[in-house]
Amino acid sequence: MSTYILPFWKKIGTSSSIIAKRVSEKLNLPTSHTGTLDPMAEGVVKIIVGEDSKNKENYISTNKTYQFKFLFGISTDTHDALGMIDRISESSSIDEEKLKIELNNFLGSYKQQYPNFSSKKINGRSLWEYERQNFPVPEVFIEGEVIKIISSKLKVITKDKLLSKIFEQINLIHGNFRQKDITISYQKADLPNQFTFLEVEIEMTRGLYVRGLARDLGVRINMPCIILDLVRTKDGETGIQDCLNPEDYFQEEILKNQNFLFPDFKKL
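Structure (tokenized):
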């Protein structure tokens, strides 16, 4: 039994793991994947198919490239829009020069604490399970590298447009991710009328969390910050042009079950 890679373009709402599982079921072969993408993220996911899928360390050393927005003025417990708001700034006005300096300071070696809501397993339990079950969350760190900041551009968005975008994306998420409570927290929050965001494209080594980058940047500039519109545009040299569309690949299965590609986390 040989080993090969099937690249897919993951969309908001599904997961890297469920795509790997469905490929395994379809082909009756073992599978794994080269990197988890958050529920609110989309982009390249490479599925390892075959006998070497259990040795995925041989396949996951490639750099990842992401396009996303740093949104300033609020923070959440997940460091992205799919989280409970825990801090709001009266203004999201940014000192652009200071922001550029602090962003460039991430270049090179970077020690990052895993976000509390992440899939990193400690003693057989993911960090998000510790958080959701109100257990003390272990502090775990990873060392990586921010290879290069390809582009960055500062822009402004109104509160109404921002909330409309966030609610639209939350409605695409299946499973129990506290969607109702999160939506209510946005609706009740005393938010400023406009927000500043920074469109960014960054290349990083494997394992680093873009959400962790938002948390750490917010600390450095003393401004709450989350991630919005996260897209993994490349895994190594694999980009969107190389990817299969899950809806096409699993067309017959989806016709029988429209929830075929959606994970179901009922236990929490």
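Residues 16-27 form the longest helix (12 residues). The mean pLDDT is 92.
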